Amino acid sequence: MNHAADREPAGAALIVNPHSGGRNRDGLKLAEMVRDAPGVRAFVPERFEQIDAALAELAEAPPEALFISSGDGTIHYIQTWLVERSGLPPERRPILALLPHGSTNMTAADIGYRSKDLEQQAAMIRDGGWRRPQARFHDRPTVRLVNPKGNGPLHGMFLGGGVLAEATLFCRDTFNRKGLRGHWGPVLTLLSVGLKAIFRPAKPGEERRIDRPQEMRVVVDGEVLGDGWKVAVLATTLSKLVLGARPFWGACDGAVEEAEQALRVSLFDYPPPFLLRWLPVVLWGGPERRVHPSMHSRCAQRLEITVRERLVLDGEEVLPPEDGPLIVERGPVLRYLLA
User: Fold this and answer.
1) Which of 20, 109, 320, 331 could disulfide-link 70, Cβ–Cβ 3.0 to 4.6 Å?
2) Which of 96, 112, 135 is the last residue of a domain?
């Protein structure tokens, strides 16, 4: 039986995925720096499956703050475990401190711990810096996938379909697994995919093209947003994505109280407009940007995506259910340590 709800929080914990970003040297070094500190527990599982054992131990005596040294995929795995499997009530879930020690670090770039200095990270862990009056936090809901094929529910921060899914997996397999970190992989992917799409957009059925359209039906809060051939769909609770992109726009119209607590949904119809003209607007325009009529964006509480092809959640492949739409919801709010 899990008696975690009856126990006092136990300082800080650190989970290091030693394989993030190829070999997570920063995370391994940080674990050595804090391993013997009083009230600190450091876990460096050799295999990804061993993360479950570390999390189960933490759930028995939940820490006040959980530092995660990893990439985006490990973060969404841990978030899912905390919400769906730990047995901890919301008020006992630890503060999360996301350390940018993976390949792309999209989630950590938005709501992660701001300092990249290992000495400062270690001091924060050892000294309980999250208790200081000047500590800064951000409360952010997850993106909850209710019924992905085989392994739901899941809790991440970014869901992508269509070209977003294919380009993300291309970047992972072509660049990240060869040790390329930071923005280099996304930049090279954007150039590779974007140049082809500019000169000749892919047509339906061109299976070897990353930018090929896919048949989708997207329903947002009971209203059909699109049905037919689509280039991409996304749902996120982040305020910015890789390369600082913000491919969502417009004010929330009452679906949620604050834009920063919203589930933002964007959908892009096929055929796409001339990308040299519209891609910079979509990626980096302001909240009141003027977009092409084929582009749609809004806030939501619930999203239904009917699609046959794979999607990605925080860089990891997920599959839609075989017998209906993938249900996506605005998930519970978690607290993240910024500085």
Assistant:
1) 20
2) 135
Give how far Cα 52 sits from Cα of 4, 57, 78, 106, 220, Å.
16, 9, 9, 23, 34
Q: What angle do CA 81, 87, 93 make, to 5 degrees?
A: 70
Average pLDDT taken over every residue of the chain = 91
- Cβ(329)–Cβ(144) under 8 Å? yes
Domain boundary among 115, 135, 155: 135
Q: How confident is the model at residue 211 (pLDDT cuts 50, 70, 90)?
A: very high
pLDDT at 257 over 80: no
The share of the chain scoring above pLDDT 90, in percent, equals: 76
Q: What share of the chain is helix, strand, coil (3-state, %, to 5)?
A: 30, 30, 40
Q: Convert the pLDDT of each residue in 315-339 to its tens digit.
A: 999 999 999 999 999 999 999 999 9
Cα angle 8, 138, 236; round to 5: 115
Q: Is 210 helix (H, G, I), strand (E, B) or coil?
A: coil
With CA atoms as reference, report the closest residue to 130 among 93, 97, 82, 88: 97
Buried b (16+ CB within 10 A) or exposed e, 31-47: bebbeebeebbbbbbee
- Per-residue pLDDT at 106: 92
Q: What is the pTM of this model?
A: 0.92
Q: Give yes or no: residues 213 and 260 share one domain.
A: yes
> Which domain range does residue 14 map to?
4-135
- Beta partners for residue 299, in sequence order: 264
Q: Is 2's pLDDT higher than 70?
A: no
* Identity of residue 9: P
pLDDT of 8 reads 47
Q: Please answer whether residues 156 and 79 qualify as being in contact, where contact means their C-beta atoms are separated by less than 8 angstroms.
A: yes
Q: Is residue 338 part of a domain?
A: no
Closest CA to 106 of 237, 231, 210, 285: 237
Domain CATH number, residue 237? 2.60.200.40
**Count of the separate structural domains present in the chain:** 2
- How far out from the chain centre does Cα 196 lie? 27
